[in-house]
Recover the amino acids of this structure.
């Protein structure tokens, strides 16, 4: 059993002929992922890393994909995501950053009400060590194991996964939720999956200031998660964002700051590491 | 991106949300006609202009020009006033509040309405703020207006006016890719609901499809603007350690760690997920312009390769003739090659973040 | 067990203070239906047949309704239907005729992809004799029994139900699908329900020319329906519609006419009555 | 409601679907300027105008006026030509087909495209018609254009043009409440795709929100228009039995039954679901104007009550001095009272449809 994807997941890459699409498809294949086809309008007939390229997702459906990596420029992401979902591709990972907020809202709304899983936008994807990888996380940092990691960051995730691996904690799954304000998965969504996953014994959450996803995660953990959880929060030092002004403050009402998130986690029995490199030591205290 | 009040009101009018009659003046002479009593309002991207004297009344062209002259000379909370809005003075019977924004937690637009407008909405008690979570697949149909009207105390014609404003505001919110649209106060004046102020925040990532909106430069420092144009996520802070890292989360964690070690960052600079010597090299250009006393580079190489970063650092040191202390942490793909290149060039390089920051700490303590 | 609604279904009426809403609410109550509340904007606080009236569906939700009858003018139907569905009311019956086609499309699309049942627009509703009635079918024609009736017509349904009752065939359920081009339920949808319904032993379908719903029903019956089915088709004498021209003809490709429908039913073993009054005799041959 | 070609093309232009340059002329003198070769096309709501001589070419103002004069004098399949469209003559390289309509069976819009345009689409084999069922929650995104372009053989710039036309046509379809939008042919002319003809059918029930569209009277007979305006669903047929029934299904079944009995209906008239003496009475007004030889009334009373209908029939007989045979079937609420009232007034009334029609049959046979 694994979370969202596994070694049988058949992946297409939309935007495979671009710089990012091509490089990361290669890395995914090296990691053992089943990349079955690529799609780039106008480039049908090409091959990238021996993977056949099509003009449309409709044509790529002969390979029976169940996941896609979208690596197209921000203004084409909405089109690509709906193209994938129209054809029934269940897992949609969006690499691209700077996707317009309302496009992300439309994609995520449709996905959630129709049973699709969106990972991202603007995140490093999902990796199941020993099984598959969809996304851009560096291959060499992983080791198969029992710790599930979910993170709102990219590089900071690698930092922490690397520290886990170096300290002997392999991973059951690592998910980058994405750094944008609207993402397909929140902490609560993945906590539910981690709790059910047989391969997962402990959980690491890497949060950030802004929004209330960490506070909601803490609430959820109190009631529904039996496995040990530890956390790190980035942005303790950041000045409070001013952009959303008073209205934004009403939604969060004092939540959203690093202090609020750390307090919420502590109240839920989730130890919070002060430094990223402390995660393995903090984990050791709750997961032996 | 925040819009000025007058820009927001232009959008309101375009979408049929009533606003007071008025015009923008960039200099006192732009005011050529004043009917009855008018209000002259500073156009700045900050709140609290009323308390700062940025809102004045006048009854003639001469008086309005005088007030405009005074306001245009002001600086409000560090923001220079670049224009005034001259508007009819409304007879205010009551002030309401109305806004729509994206609620990250529900991943849906949220409408907030309150019968207690005209004050900072945070000061209104929660039970006086009526919230409605929009199902984006249903949108704002007239029934949403009826639900909120009932709570706001609107009936009959006022309920119809309010519903129309709400539906139009939501269309604006969707079609202009807004993060926030806010009317505070929404004024009841002689039987009409009128948007007496506007706050509109547009999603910057969508500006390409709104060519009618120019990017407002006011929210950033000149150096931030320069670095942003060059493609770097860059924010000035008030410490003395220049920071270059890759990834927003890792960069934030680097700043956090510096502070926990008693060191103060001068900036936030995220290199992004590229792998280029020049991008690394040029990042130093903007960090140096901020005049730091030392520079910390913190790279976890995934997409970015450590040897490329090392080349960029060496090139920067040469080209910009840097003689500040530079402490580097390089980990990830090709880390050993990278650290060796740096060592050969006489630059401290560590494999982990902790030791790099501890080294920086000892350097800074030595330098004090 | 019964189809879609039963004696416990709690019904609200949107537009209860109007002429139609008020009259038919009264008839529904006489039939034994649980009409728990009415909604008419601006009329909150009134009572109609002792049923409390509210300004919004949100307020009427205190009565925990699970069905609504929408009897508002055509241009307000979309608003009313989404108001009901936003609040989670599962069964939405739309009495109103002349609902704009694209409004019906939006309502039905949302309902179908989110698990709501829309009956109508422009139909007489649903009646479960002895249990409940939502709609405008005349109370006196029904008798409790084992024949399920689905119809695209209004008055013609009454004609046929009346003939069934007079000939000793009571009804398990009678559904008027609605006469519009887009309706919430088609014959195939209700055939699935009839086949599963324990109270139903035989089925009467009352079709019309236009569209291919009868041909699809015939296909479905061949494969999935074990209970006896008989049918009547109105419009044998009508000249073919010209409005949709050649493009319309492409979709149907010779289907849509009375001949095509009768042929399809006959091939599926469904006898088709020549005159409406023949239905009981035709039924007698297949259902004893 | 069918739009004329020129009305459809106005909508096309409004939505950025390219059309040939041209203008409408209601009389020859409206033509004041002709550049190069033009085509003069009859504006009628029927197909096959080409074969009927309704499309002619001209190269000067004088010639165009002459052709317009000829066409405006024509009647095509019973339709008087009320205007001509004068358009630049396109250099046609290839003709395609494109349409969007509502597919009742899937309850979704259906796009149909074919590389074999310019002919009746029914004559094109199914495998040459590419169909795409639109998910209304997703709409027509650019990928739909790419899927169909590939099948149509468009690539590069032509695929972009086609995608833009498709997206714009879908917007028109949705925003103007169309039942059908059709371009046949969509012409490739000097590297551009251009809508050389238009067929647009608007949902009549939505006309209230499209005040720019006037209802075209041409599709109905004067008597149908008159009866429709009075609120009756009324269609003239070519028999001799006037028919009044309630409900579209029952009315259709009544006509079917008459025909099966060898009787020919003169009209379709659906009283609707009301309960009013006047509505029943006035229905006779329109049926009588169609000069039938007998009248059949077939009422199943649910909402409509039989005694009300009886009063209406008696009032009509008095007011319009009807001496034609009237056969009535009255069943449902208050049926006995109704039949008794009619019997007292000397009108045959039956409880069931079969006996009513058999009586009518015997009357008609006796009268021959």
């Amino acid at each position: 059993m694994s979370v969202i994807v596994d070694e049988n997941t058949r992946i297409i890459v939309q935007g495979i002929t671009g710089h990012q699409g091509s490089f990361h498809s290669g890395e995914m294949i090296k990691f053992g992922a089943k990349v079955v086809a690529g799609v780039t309008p106008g480039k049908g007939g090409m091959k990238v890393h021996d993977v056949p390229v099509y003009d449309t997702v409709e044509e790529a459906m002969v390979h029976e994909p169940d996941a896609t990596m979208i690596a197209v420029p921000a203004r084409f992401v909405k089109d690509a995501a709906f193209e994938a979902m129209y054809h029934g591709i269940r897992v949609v990972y969006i690499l691209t950053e700077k996707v317009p907020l309302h496009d992300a809202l439309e994609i995520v709304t449709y996905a959630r009400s129709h049973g699709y899983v969106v990972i991202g936008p603007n995140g490093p994807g999902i990796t199941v060590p020993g099984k598959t990888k969809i996304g851009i996380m560096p291959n060499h940092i992983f080791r198969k194991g029992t710790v599930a990691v979910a993170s709102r960051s990219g590089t900071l995730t690698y930092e922490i996964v690397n520290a886990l691996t170096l300290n002997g904690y392999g991973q059951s799954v690592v998910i980058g939720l994405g750094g944008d304000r609207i993402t397909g998965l929140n902490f609560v969504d993945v906590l539910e999956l981690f709790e059910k996953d047989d391969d997962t014994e402990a959980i690491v959450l890497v949060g950030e200031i802004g929004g209330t996803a960490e506070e909601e995660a803490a609430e959820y953990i109190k009631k529904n998660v039996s496995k040990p959880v530890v956390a790190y929060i980035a942005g303790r030092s950041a000045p409070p964002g001013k952009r959303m002004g008073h209205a934004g403050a009403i939604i969060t009402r004092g939540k959203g700051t690093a202090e609020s998130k750390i307090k919420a986690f502590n109240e839920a029995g989730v130890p919070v590491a002060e430094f990223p490199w402390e995660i393995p030591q903090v984990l050791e205290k709750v997961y032996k | 991106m925040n819009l000025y009040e007058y820009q927001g009101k232009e959008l309101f009018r375009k979408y049929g949300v009533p606003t007071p009659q008025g015009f923008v003046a960039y200099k006192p002479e732009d005011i050529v006609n004043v009917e009855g009593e008018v209000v002259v309002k500073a156009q700045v991207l900050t709140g609290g202009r009323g308390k700062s004297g940025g809102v004045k009344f006048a009854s003639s062209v001469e008086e309005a020009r005088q007030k405009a002259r005074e306001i245009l000379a002001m600086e409000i909370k560090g923001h220079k006033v670049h224009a005034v809005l001259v508007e009819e003075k409304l007879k205010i019977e009551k002030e309401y509040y109305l806004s729509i924004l994206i609620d990250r937690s529900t991943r849906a637009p949220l409408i907030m309405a309150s019968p207690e407008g005209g004050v900072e909405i945070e000061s209104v008690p929660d039970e006086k703020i009526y919230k409605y979570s929009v199902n984006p697949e249903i949108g704002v149909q007239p029934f949403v207006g009826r639900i909120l009207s009932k709570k706001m105390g609107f009936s009959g014609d006022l309920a119809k006016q309010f519903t129309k404003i709400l539906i139009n505001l939501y269309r604006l919110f969707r079609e202009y890719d807004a993060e926030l649209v806010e009317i505070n106060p929404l004024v009841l004046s002689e039987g009409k609901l009128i948007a007496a102020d506007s706050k509109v925040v547009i999603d910057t990532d969508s500006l390409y499809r709104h060519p009618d909106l120019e990017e407002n430069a006011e929210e950033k420092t000149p150096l931030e603007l320069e670095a942003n144009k060059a493609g770097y996520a860059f924010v000035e802070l008030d410490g003395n350690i220049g920071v270059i890292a890759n990834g927003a989360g890792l960069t934030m964690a680097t700043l956090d760690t510096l502070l926990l070690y008693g060191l103060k960052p001068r900036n936030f600079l995220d290199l992004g997920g590229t792998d280029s010597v020049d991008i690394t090299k040029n990042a130093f250009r903007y960090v140096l312009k901020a005049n730091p006393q030392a520079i910390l580079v913190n790279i976890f190489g995934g997409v970015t390769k450590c040897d490329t970063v090392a080349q960029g650092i060496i090139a920067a040191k040469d080209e910009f003739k840097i003689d500040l202390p530079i402490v580097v942490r390089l980990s990830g793909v090709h880390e050993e090659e990278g650290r060796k290149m740096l060592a050969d060039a006489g630059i401290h390089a560590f494999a982990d973040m902790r030791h790099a920051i501890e080294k920086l700490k000892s350097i800074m303590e030595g330098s004090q």
